[in-house]
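Z., the sequence and structure:
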Amino acid sequence: MSGYAGSELVDKPDVRIWTQKQRLRFPRASPAVPYCLPLHLHDSDLPSVILADEEGNQIKLSLDSLYEAVGNQLVWLQCRSGVEVSFFGAPQIGGATNLEVHEAEDVLPLAEFFKDTAEDVLMRWELHAEKDSAARRMSLQALHEGLALPGQALHLDPAVGFISLISRPSTVLMDIGSRIHLRAHFFDHGQEHPYLGHWLGLKSRLGSGSLGLAFGIEGSYSCLNGDVASCASGRHYGWLRVSDRSRGWHLLELIIEEGELSAIIDGEPLLTTKAEGFCETEEVWLVSRSGGPGIWAGVELFHTPPGNRRWETGAQSVQPGELSPWDCLTEEGRWQLDDAGVMRSIDFRIGTLAKVTAVKQRLLDSFSRVSSKYPYKSGMDQMLGKEYRVVKIADDGMVGLPSPDGSDDGVWWFPPYAYAIRVVTEEPPKAETPEPGPVAPAPVDEEVHVPEAPQMDEEEEQPEGGTAAPVDFDGFTLDCWNIPGEEDIKRIERCVSTFVNALAAANVALPENIARVQLCAAHPGCHVYKFGTRRVHMATRAGEGGRLLLVVRVGGGYMDFIEFARRNGSLEQLRLQKTSEPGKREVARFTSVLSKGRRKTIPSKT
């Protein structure tokens, strides 16, 4: 990468300029949730791609290890927060971009290809074994029988007792708007054994499950829903047979999304059922109990928003310039990489706030690239690292900043290069929020809060006769108006009641116990509410024309209550029903249906 290390010049500055970018938003992604997100790119677009987050920092990406299609590739983007990505294609000024591809280990929450030694593996995985000597029964060997993957194969030999390896993802996964996909390769030696046992396991906040050769079940692969089978004696598990055994490498996959667990072997879906076994943390298990060595390779975990039956369905047909499955908005301007590889705006205009680099050598180098009629002035030393308003723009693009001493008619000229001077993005001032009064804290399952809606003026209340058009939400209308002088508790309860009744009238599944618990101790205007088995923090916000909006905070971002209810209402309804009669054993049957592009879980009629 071009740039500087500290204050030393290590390479020539990057003078390429982009005049267009695509602002990308991923469907159904929640703000402030860390994801790894897929992007299908045509082969002709791959060499000239730069992807950046909202701060301009380049986003790490890796190629999918298994994806095969004609003319396109599947790349994975590491998006630690936010759902918007800036896509920069070929630069309009300067040479081509060299795509920087990272290893999957640097992008995914978990990617293990066993590239080093067994001792290194144990630095990343937690070992549970029957015997202290189990670590000596682990080995790494070359991949065989045509498996085209990087790295090696892990051999777990349970001859002296069971061996379990547990890995925890590098990022915390969220249960809001999430899809968790675990895949691993397993080599089946094909030999019959009365006590065979090797399986892959996943524990998460969305549910748990195991897939592999279950102990005591001969001749087939089996799936366990709701748990990861341990090797403790005396425990019994409800494994379900899903597929016959065959010798060779097999791809085992577990996917949990929208309240369902799916088991897939070699690309064939074998079981889909209601997810169970919700845990507070995420864990990936490799277990070998008995029956010869368990041989594993290429373990990967993906955390994405729920699928939309597009990107997650296999090989895609992608045209040049297409950025599937993202929503795109084209923006014009001028951007350039600075010395640290950060994409900066250099779209200078009169009145724009600009920041001068703090490193003198960078500024000197930028002057060496422009006409000699624009000299570096010694007085510019005092401008290093400071911000100024642009006062003039020359025809050749040079940027005029106010001279500190008023010389040269009050204007000093600076080269329009990102490593010397850049546009500062200005955010609108935030309204001050008063400190909350002392309120006893209450235990909550997750922090979900927003600021209180500001008090509205009299002229912002509902017009006489209610003539303003109501808000429309996908086929049903909703009116909830601000009432000046209304108490905070009455406002939130009225708003929640209005929204819940409107959603129920639109046949949106909701838990039956939605009710206010208490005022939030940490944030003014925020209220703790029951929502199924969870407690969430909700508040009202001011909308247009005097309307009230009901919002929920998820992670560090905000979500409209309607969208929150659609994503979580059905699942929380089922969870609440499950816990409503403890000790009573029931068999509940549900059907998954697709309605208006959304998956809904409903009780079966039989």
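DSSP finds four helices and 40 strands in the chain. The CA atoms of residues 226 and 277 lie 4 Å apart.

Let me know what you think.
H.
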